[in-house]
Amino acid sequence: RWLLRSPFDRNVPVQLELQELLLDHVFQRLGVASQGCVDHPIVLTEAVCNPLYSRQMMSELLFECYQVPKVSYGVDSLYSFYHNRRQNWPCSGLIISSGYQCTHVLPVLEGRLDAKNCKRINLGGCQAAVYLQRLLQLKYPGHFAAITLSRMEEILHEHSYIAEDYIEELQKWRSPEYYENNMHKMQLPFSNKLLGSTLTSEEKQERRQQQLRRLQELNARRREEKLQLDQERLDRLLYVQELLEDGQMDQFHKALVELNMDSAEELQSYINKLSLSVEQTKQKILQAEVNIEVDVVDSKPETPDLDPLGSEQSLEDVESINEFEPLFAEEQPEAEKPVAAVQPVFNLAEYHQLFLGTERIRAPEIVFQPSLIGEDQAGIAETMQYVLERYSKEQQAILVQNVFLTGGNTMYPGLKGRVQKELLEMRPFQSSFQVHLASSPVLDAWYGARDWAVEYMTREEGWITRKDYEEKGGEYLKEHCASNVYVPIRLPKQAPRSTETLAPSRVLTSSAGNPCEQA
């Protein structure tokens, strides 16, 4: 059996067996024995407007598997709102909750969530991290593998901020002085070890010899391929020349057209050039084979008398080696000097640095402008205005007096100022509003659930007991100040069977009594 989820909720376990393993782990970490039963009340958070089927599956797991005495469901952002309430705070407000996967705009009137006007934006910290990763991978393709998603999340938390005016902030970044003063550097891990720094002179000499042999073999292979191609073309030209000598003029002219030639003189010129090229290539191949044989003989430890031919070939071999000296100049052995570490021509640490410029504001800006990543959605400002316009002017004035920001994705510096600027632009002239940021946007949901559980532990409000579960079903929810709105399942009414069975009998009796009416 599977839990229902939306396509935007990634990394959410939906199999009951897996959820049972996760709950076992949680109870074990809390020091609660989960074998047999869990004799403790449970407070769980759920999504805004959570489907009844999902709540039914969770209630079934808690009551049937763990035998919990009672359970309560609430919304994390409402728990945070409950924890941050102060004296003289209004019970109404507009909550902006931005998390890892999505962002919610939740209106609260007189202490209760108005579920009909809640709106969701399918953008959060995960999408911002992925967008930042794409930007830096395009900027630094050499460090593609090192630019991981976890490092991008670290950059978002420590280096990013929300621009109060995005276009104006981009204009500031065009200034070299502003870029130099506000650009951040991030050091990537790297290794300072270089190959070849611990090789002896004998090992370097052996490596040079191996590389030289590989070059000679490569050149010999290329000469053989060139010789084969030239020989095939020469045979083709000689065949065309034989057509001319045999008097087959039609075939000869056709062959000239195929070869893109105009006359027999041009054909003879090409034949002469190819013949000369073939002969030169053959001589080079023979000369290279002789040089390799002489090189093998000279490499022996004991060399008796050398004939004049061998000495002449060895000199030519040395000259051929000197041709490749520029390729191995950096590995010249020095017998008298001690072997020193090879110094790099550039600073490896600076090469493995990421320079963060406009990326600091571009990544978190997607929650206000989703079009930056190609998403056809409204941003926070547009969604907030849309929600406010669904209320009367008096209710709008009440809601904007307590705009509350919570969630891990609201911890960017400058977010509060940006929301104030957006409210200033959409609200009437000289109207007042207040924006508050949660004291701990990440942990306030847990603190609020704890405060609510302590305050309502001895009350019946908000708690679903086992009796309620058995009588009203697993989807049942007892509402409280931090919960969703319970909308029971309404089944269509069915007509009673008595009327359906009596109606045909009446028709039959009446029709039987009057045959004319039946006709």
Output the keywords.
8% strand; alpha/beta; Actin, Chain A, domain 4; 519 residues; three-stranded mixed beta sheet; disordered C terminus; 3 domains; disordered N terminus; six-stranded mixed beta sheet
In summary, what is this structure?
This protein is of the alpha/beta class and 519 residues long.
Structural class by SSE content: alpha/beta
> Please, how many domains?
3
* CATH C-level label of the largest domain: Alpha Beta
Q: CATH homologous superfamily name of the largest domain?
A: ATPase, nucleotide binding domain
| CATH fold-level name of the largest domain | Nucleotidyltransferase, domain 5
Number of helices: 20
Question: Oligomerization state of this entry?
Answer: single chain
Radius of gyration from the alpha-carbon trace, in angstroms: 42 Å
Detail the poorly predicted runs: 1-8, 299-315, 326-339, 499-519
GO biological process, one term: regulation of DNA metabolic process
Main location: nucleus
Protein name: Actin-related protein 5
Family: Belongs to the actin family. ARP5 subfamily.
What can you see in these coordinates?
With 519 residues, the protein is an alpha/beta fold. The chain has three domains: 8-122 and 377-472, Nucleotidyltransferase, domain 5, CATH 3.30.420.40; 127-190 and 351-367, Alpha-Beta Complex (Actin, Chain A, domain 4), CATH 3.90.640.10; 203-292. 50% of the residues lie in helices and 8% in strands. The protein has 20 helices and eleven strands. The strands form three sheets. Strands 3, 4, 5, 6, 9 and 10 form a six-stranded mixed sheet that branches. Strands 1-2-11 form a three-stranded mixed sheet. A two-stranded antiparallel sheet has the order 7-8. Strand 9 (403-406), helix 16 (415-426) and strand 10 form a beta-alpha-beta unit. Helix 4 (125-139) crosses helix 5 and helix 8 packs antiparallel against helix 10. The longest helix has 45 residues, at 201-245. The two termini are 58 Å apart. Residues 1-8, 299-315, 326-339 and 499-519 have low confidence and may be disordered.
